[in-house]
Specification:
single chain; 456 residues; alpha/beta; Urease, subunit C, domain 1; TIM Barrel; four-stranded mixed β-sheet; globular
Amino acid sequence: MTDQPSARPNDSAQYDLVVRGQRILTSAGIVAREVGVRDGVIVAIEPFGNDLTGTDVIDLDDTQVMIPGLVDTHVHVNEPGRTEWEGFDSATRAAAAGGVTTLIDMPLNSIPPTVTAEALAIKRAAAGPKAYIDVGFWGGAVPGNKGDLRQLHDDGVFGFKCFLLHSGVDEFPHLTADEMEEDMAELASFDSLMIVHAEDSRAIDRAPHAEGDKYSRFLASRPRGAENVAIAEVIERARWTGARAHILHLSSSDALPMIASARRDGVKLTVETCPHYLTLLAEEIPNGATAFKCCPPIREASNRELLWEGLVDGTIDCIVSDHSPSTIDLKDVENGDFGVAWGGVASLQLGLSLIWTEAKKRGIPLEQVVDWMSRKPAQLAGMTRKGRIALGCDADFAIFAPEEGQIVDVTKLHHKNPISPYDGRALAGVVSQTWVRGRKVDYTAPHGRLLRRGEA
C-alpha cells in the first residue's frame, strides 16, 4: 500500500488521493468503492474497479475498512493554564491515533475559561500551532457573562456549556436553573445551543459524602436522582424558552422516558453518552481505583444495558468521549480516596475500539457505531462537511481493522498522563491511519485547522 503523498501532484493524476477497497463506509453502508480526493475534499465516489488515478493511491486489503473520521464534541484539552493535565499537542495526537479527525474543546479547565471573546482568542492562539486534527471550541455560560454570549457566537463557538452544580474548578461557576433559563432565552434569539452538565446540586448536597476508598460510597454520593431532577429542569426551561438544549454525558437510564416524552412534545433536545458508561460497570470497580472516578459516575450493569437500548432506539443521539484528564497526583492514586481524586476518564484515543468491542457482543454493526461517533456528533455541532464519506465532505477518514485486537498499554497512549481505567483491557479493532482533509497525520507536523461555527 502506498500512503505517503508526493510533494507535488503528477500532471497526469486526476486526483490528489485515491482510496479503493472492498470495505468503504459510505451512506450506502460498507461497500466496494473508489474514493477520489482533490484539495482536501471528496470529489468522487465510484464503483470498485473504475481504476481512478491519483498522485497517491491507497489499496485497502480485505481486513481494512475506510471509515469517516470520528467527531468528538466533548473534549477537555485544558490549555492554556492546565497544560500539565493535557494540551493541544498531546490531545490531538491521541485523537488522531483513535481515528478522531475533529474535536470540539470544552470551555473550562483552561485558564482563562472560554467565557469571553478575549479568552477565546487566547485559546485559539494556544491551539493553532499544535493541532494535528481540526479543532473547534465551545463557549461557556457562567453567572454574569450573558452580555458576552452573542459576541462569542459571532466569533464562531459552536454553542455554550453550563453546569447546574459546582464545575470542579472555581473559575467556571455554575448557573442556577433560573439563570440557565435566562441564558437559554438569549441563545434562542440567535439559535445557538445550550449544552448542560445536568446534575442537581441540592440532591448531591443531601447525598452521602464521597470519602475513602469505597466505590459504592462514591456512587451513592452522585445518585441517579440528581441527574433526573436536573434533566427535568433542562427539559422544562428549553420548553419554555424554545431554545435548543443538549444533555451531556448521560449516565442515568432513569431519564430516558422523560427525554423521549419531551421530544414527542417538540422540545428541542439532544443527548449524548460516553464510552465509560457503555463499557464499565460499578460492580466491577475495585475499591481505591480512582482512575474510574468520573461525574456523573459509572453505574450498575442493568443501567448500562438500558443506555445501550436508548442508543439503539434513538433516544440517545451520539457517543463522545468526555475526555477529562488530569495529572496522576490529582487522581490520588496513592491513597485511592474517591472524595479527593479528580473526576474524569481519559479515553480520547480509545473510544472507537471500546464501543466496537461492546457493540459486537450485542450484534450492532460497525456502520451504526461509526454513525453514533461521527455523523451524529457532527450534526449536533452543525457541521455539514464532517462525519461522512460523501461528495463535498472534507476528506477526513481513518483506516480501521475491526477484526484485529489490541491490549491497552497506558504507557503507549498519546495522552499526556499515563492513567486510564482501561489499562490492560483487551479490545477489538485497531486504527492504523488517520487522514485529515486528504493529508495523512504523521505525528511530526501539525496541519489541523481551527474551526468556526458555520464553516465546517
